[in-house]
Each structure stands twice: as structure tokens, then as C-alpha cells.
């Protein structure tokens, strides 16, 4: 299956230079790094990410990949120097793909390059995604010794038949030992779950939630399965081999997740994310939702610097070739106008438990924003008491219809 297509956009120069307007106010903005590791042992049936198995690499070498990342890190430093940008990194996130298919030393090497090139603030969050079957206690200890602070485990489900439908290869029995090993190494832990897989019942989903809670991780994510065109699971649904996703059942599963996780001491801070005692959110992901800046390193990675979005070529070979020639791997970019930035601000902030200030919404919104706020309260989508206190925060019903609320509130 080919990865999903990149968006359309205007090209950047070969140097990777960003528009001069980006420099305005850039010093006041938080800065993070996303590092994409595009390698997987197998492709999961639902996956639409920019990932590659060994047979799809066509000459790209995982062994040489850190050097390519190092070249983009150096290029990013040059581009940001031209803008007068000198902020150190507040967060680093290794995602994929399966980052832990690379040796721990390779990930640490890239982290050290980021540290020496940009600087990393004291107490920064440094996260690595991992499959339960791709790490052991020794690997996790080496990550911790190298400066990683947090591991996010892709558990997805505790139920074998659900994992089979998703084409996940790990044994559910392996999850508890590796989470315990991560804790023993001093790492913060997160568990990622997926709900709404065809054939998954409420009882199946409860079993997955119960497993996640029993592990007592610092953080739990629960994402609704989205069927993407071109994936194996989309083809199975189209051929009638498995049932389509049931939207009403997914809504019931979300409500079950919120009730179960709340009872277990987790607080929602974003639509799909809960933190133990409200004290352990993913600071890197919060930075996305709070409209800060990040540079995405690696093939297909997306970046955002003060209103400019840009993204890299997809294939690791094309990515490495450009960098070897001293050229930016960027495939395109777009400069957001004031209306787009306002829409995104509203869309992102309303996803958060902290919500958005009524005063800011009035400043960003259209002529009818006050009437829309009142209508959303009347429809049970927005917390009326908190709105009177000056903040727009979604109710549980509003969280299920968050996109609709955001569209109503946007100018």
C-alpha cells in the first residue's frame, strides 16, 4: 500500500529558506522537534502513515538513516539562523513507524545531534514511540541513560481477535512486562489504544481499558479507528469481508472510555487523551494543539514555524538523495493567512479541557459568534457555567461533536 499523498503547496527554494515574515515574533514561541522513523516490520491493516517495510525501502538503509537526519538538522539550523531564531527545544518526539526498530544508540545519536545543534531546555520531555514487541528492559534502560524521558506504547487492544483485524503482531501478554520495565528504568509511560475496530464489542473495549488502567501508566490515549482509503482494512470493508465501522458504537465506546478512565484517576485534557491525576499530559502533543512551533525531521514529516507549514518528500531514498546534494527535503509549503490561523486556533483550542477564552473567541470569531456560543450551550455542547466564567469548554456531548462545534464558532 502506498502511503497517503502529501498536500499540495508551493515549493520552497533548494536552501529550504522560509518566508521572511516568519521572523516576526518568533522569539516568543515555544519550539519542539518531531523525528520521524519510517520503518516497520509489517504494515498494520489500518495504517496510512508514511512507513515502509524492508521490501518497500528500495535502496534506503535504516543503518544510514541517522546520518540523513543529521544533515536535515544542520540545514534546519541554517534556515532558522537566517530568521534570528535561537530558541532551544522544549520537547522532542520520536514517532513513526516504529522508532525502536533502530538500535537505541541510533536514537540517542540523533537526540545528541539535536542537543548540540539547538540546545534542549532542562527538564525537556523526550518521547519515543514503541511497539510492545520491539523493546526489552535493556533497550529501555539504554534509552533512559541516553536522555529519553518518556515511552509511548502502541498497545491498541488487549483482545487477540481485535489485534488480528488490525494486523497487530504483538502478544497482549507482553504489554505488562515492558511497561513495568520502562517504569523501572525511570521512564514516564503512555499507553495508546484504538477503539471501534470492526468486530470489536463493548466488552472487548472494556477489556482493553481495564488492561490499560491496570498498568497504571502516566498517560492513556484512546483514538477512534478511522478507515483511510488505500489501507488493507478499507479494502476488506469494500469487499464485504468485515463490517464497516459503526459510528454509534464508537460514540458509546468513547463514553465508556471517559467513564472508566475517570474512575481510575485519569483526567481528560484533550479529546483523545487522559493523564493520571491530570499531572502527566504529553507536552509535545500539547504544543501542537497550542499552536506552537516544531520542525519535523524525516521523510514525509510536517513542520510549522510561525504560520508557515511545510512538509518533506515521502520516500526515505528521495529524502536522503536531496540532503546528500545539499538541498532541502521539503516538498512544499503554505503560508497561513489570518482567517486560516483564526480557524485553526479555534479548532485546536476547543479540543482541550482548558478550552478557549470567550474574549479571544469574540476577537477571532465572526459577527454571530455570541449567538453561536448561546446556541452551543442550549444544545448541551458547551459548559454553560464555565462560559459565564469566561471560557468555552466542551461537555461530554460536545466532545463527541467537537468538529461541528468548532465549525459553528469559526468566523
TrEMBL record:
Record bears the keyword Methyltransferase: no
Compartments where found: Cytoplasm
Pfam families per UniProt: Radical_SAM
PROSITE patterns on file: RADICAL_SAM
Coiled-coil region: none
All copies of domain Radical SAM core, residue ranges: 25-267
InterPro entries cross-referenced by the UniProt entry: Aldolase_TIM (IPR013785), Coproporphyrinogen-III_oxidase (IPR034505), Elp3/MiaA/NifB-like_rSAM (IPR006638), HemW-like (IPR004559), rSAM (IPR007197), rSAM_sf (IPR058240)
Keywords (A to Z) from UniProt: 4Fe-4S, Chaperone, Cytoplasm, Heme, Iron, Iron-sulfur, Metal-binding, S-adenosyl-L-methionine
Transmembrane segments: none
SMART domains reported in the protein's UniProt record: Elp3
Job description of the protein: Probably acts as a heme chaperone, transferring heme to an unknown acceptor. Binds one molecule of heme per monomer, possibly covalently. Binds 1 [4Fe-4S] cluster. The cluster is coordinated with 3 cysteines and an exchangeable S-adenosyl-L-methionine.
Record family assignment: Belongs to the anaerobic coproporphyrinogen-III oxidase family. HemW subfamily.
Protein's name in the database: Heme chaperone HemW
Amino acid at each position: 500500500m502506498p502511503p497517503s499523498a502529501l498536500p499540495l503547496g508551493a515549493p520552497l527554494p533548494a536552501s529550504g529558506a522560509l518566508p521572511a515574515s516568519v521572523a516576526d515574533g518568533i522569539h516568543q514561541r515555544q519550539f519542539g522537534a518531531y523525528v520521524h522513523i519510517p520503518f516497520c516490520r509489517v504494515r498494520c491493516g489500518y495504517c496510512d502513515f508514511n512507513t515502509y517495510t524492508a521490501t518497500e525501502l528500495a535502496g534506503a538503509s535504516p543503518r544510514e538513516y541517522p546520518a540523513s537526519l543529521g544533515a536535515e538538522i544542520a540545514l534546519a539550523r541554517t534556515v532558522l539562523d537566517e530568521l534570528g531564531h535561537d530558541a532551544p527545544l522544549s520537547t522532542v518526539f520520536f514517532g513513526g513507524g516504529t522508532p525502536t526498530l533502530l538500535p537505541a544508540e541510533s536514537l540517542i545519536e540523533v537526540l545528541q545531534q539535536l542537543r548540540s545543534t539547538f540546545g534542549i531546555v532542562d527538564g525537556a520531555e523526550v518521547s519515543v514511540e514503541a511497539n510492545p514487541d520491539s523493546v526489552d528492559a535493556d533497550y529501555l534502560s539504554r534509552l533512559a541513560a541516553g536522555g529519553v524521558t518518556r515511552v509511548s506504547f502502541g498497545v491498541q487492544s488487549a483482545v487477540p481477535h481485535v489485534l488480528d483485524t488490525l494486523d497487530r503482531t504483538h502478544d497482549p501478554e507482553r504489554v505488562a512486562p515492558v511497561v513495568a520495565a520502562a517504569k523501572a528504568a525511570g521512564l514516564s509511560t503512555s499507553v495508546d489504544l484504538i477503539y471501534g475496530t470492526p468486530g470489536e464489542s463493548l466488552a472487548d473495549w472494556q477489556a482493553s481499558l481495564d488492561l490499560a488502567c491496570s498498568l497504571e501508566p502516566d498517560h492513556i490515549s484512546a483514538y477512534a479507528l478511522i478507515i483511510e482509503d488505500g489501507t488493507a482494512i478499507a479494502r476488506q470493508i469494500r469487499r464485504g469481508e468485515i463490517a464497516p465501522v459503526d459510528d454509534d458504537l464508537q460514540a458509546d465506546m468513547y463514553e465508556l472510555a471517559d467513564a472508566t478512565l475517570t474512575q481510575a484517576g485519569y483526567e481528560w485534557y484533550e479529546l483523545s487523551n487522559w493523564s493520571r491525576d491530570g499531572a502527566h499530559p504529553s507536552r509535545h502533543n500539547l504544543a501542537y494543539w497550542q499552536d506552537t512551533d516544531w520542525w519535523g525531521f524525516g521523510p514525509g514529516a510536517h513542520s510549522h514555524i510561525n504560520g508557515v507549514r511545510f512538509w518533506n518528500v515521502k520516500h526515505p531514498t528521495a529524502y536522503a538523495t536531496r540532503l546528500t546534494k545539499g538541498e532541502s527535503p521539503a516538498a512544499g509549503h503554505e503560508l497561513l493567512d489570518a482567517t486560516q490561523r483564526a480557524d485553526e486556533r479555534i479548532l485546536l483550542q476547543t479540543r482541550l479541557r482548558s478550552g478557549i477564552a470567550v474574549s479571544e473567541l469574540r476577537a477571532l470569531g465572526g459577527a454571530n459568534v455570541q449567538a453561536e456560543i448561546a446556541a452551543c450551550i442550549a444544545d448541551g455542547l458547551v459548559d454553560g457555567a464555565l462560559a459565564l466564567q469566561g471560557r468555552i469548554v466542551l461537555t461530554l456531548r460536545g466532545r463527541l461533536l467537537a468538529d461541528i462545534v468548532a465549525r459553528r464558532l469559526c468566523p
